[in-house]
Amino acid sequence: MYCQIEDTDNLPVKSSLDDLGIFGGVPLFPERLHVGRPNVCNQSELLAGIRDVLESRWLTNNGPQVQEFERRIAGISGVRHCVAMCNATTALQIAIRAANLTGEVIVPSFTFVASAHALQWQGIRPVFCDIDNNFCLDPERVEELITPRTTGIIGVHLWGQTCNVEALTAICRRHHLTLLFDAAHAFGCSRDGVMVGGFGRAEVFSFHATKFVSTFEGGAVVTDDGEFADSCRAIRNFGFSGEDEVSGLGINGKMNEIEAVMGLVSLDHMDEIITTNRNNYLEYRKGLDGIPGVTLIKYEENNRNNYQYIVIEIEEDARIGRDMLHTLLQTEGILARRYFYPGCHRMEPYRSLYPGAEQHLPRTERACAQMLCLPTGMAIGREQIRAICALLRFVVENGTEIQARSKRSLSTVAASGSL
Ligand SMILES: *Cc1c(COP(=O)(O)O)cnc(C)c1O
């Protein structure tokens, strides 16, 4: 059996403002619920696999577990080649090098900062582009950012929702640019019936502990291009192309055998994780229905998804602001995350290097101010989701009063001199 927690009955229902954590009430979840709590699927299978690795004394350097993991990932994603790496950030950097990107590369700002860092780390300027209704790179905004220095585009399949691959592919063809995808969120997802993995020149998965399938730390470059895969393999291993032959600059980007074992166990239980995530999503969808100003990001039922992210949008006219709601949930032990606040363009070094970027990013700015990710995964049960939704409904419906009262209590504290 795997490790989904038992439903806990009788979670307290909050029905007056005094019950709320920010006004001194007892937190709804004293044990705290996290976004991206790692799924540990089957400890005994994992430990047995680790024991086998230790006995074999083949701990790393493209061992049999890594090779098997690569075969399985390629198979599930419908691509010819998978090159497993120590993490997705390194995998992105290696893919960027293998593609010979230089100068400027167009990338969204509404993403995890690693998408931009992977470029800047190699002296390439990330040119931030706005997003479409799907929270992914907007093809209509991409072309105006292309300059003679542009060499490529990196799309991010955010929360497993895929980029407009067709439009981006057409732009890259027209301008002779290389198209890569940061698919860190999108392993196990599809676009119009085609699995993520084979789009663009290459795609990059993350298998970090907080992601859907985990190798503790890990990532991979997947591609149908054999030569590209060979370049990535060489760069991953210091540039070695033979026992004593180094054919170019490389780094150590290898995944080790124990990480691969974790990944293989995770893959064996992948369907259970998806089922749990999907049930959680459906429970949230039911529980959040009709809360004024709150919308749940919908997954298209005709595509495969890993349902790893429960994302809500707090609209401008909602009775409570996103940041206030975030604070309020924290004090209830619900550790919701403001993915992706404040946006790469408002983080260093980008804020200082490329000031004024926000002027071209109105949708990004809005998303950074309005989106919130809620806890899900195997560590959370149906009753907890119901309690979270009931709390959300209560605080949004009473949002105006809550904001007024919290302002009042803050000014009282300030007046009494204790701030
Ligand atoms: C997690 C993540 C990464 C980085 O992955 P690591 O494996 O932790 O290096 C890159 N891009 C996005 C969009 C991510 O969410």
Note down, in words, how this protein is organized.
Residues 1-7 have low confidence and may be disordered. The chain folds into two domains: 18-37 and 270-336 and 375-409, Aspartate Aminotransferase, domain 1 (Alpha-Beta Complex), CATH 3.90.1150; 43-268, Aspartate Aminotransferase, domain 2. It starts with 32 loop residues before the first strand and ends with a helix. The chain has 419 residues and is α/β, with parallel strands linked by helices. It has 14 helices and 14 strands. A hairpin with a 2-residue loop joins strand 7 (190-191) and strand 8 (194-195). Strands 2-10-9-6-5-3-4 form a seven-stranded mixed β-sheet, with helices on both faces. A three-stranded antiparallel β-sheet has the order 11-12-14. A two-stranded parallel ribbon has the order 1-13. Helices cover 38% and strands 14% of the residues. It has helices spanning 43-56, 64-77, 88-98, 114-120, 139-142, 165-175, 226-236, 257-268, 270-288, 322-331, 350-353, 362-370, 382-397, 399-415; strands at 33-34, 81-85, 104-108, 125-129, 150-156, 178-182, 190-191, 194-195, 202-206, 219-223, 294-296, 310-314, 334-335, 371-374. The protein binds pyridoxal-5'-phosphate (PLP). Residues 87-89, 111-112, 114-115, 156, 182, 184-185, 206, 208, 219 line the site of pyridoxal-5'-phosphate. Pyridoxal-5'-phosphate binds next to helix 3 and helix 4.
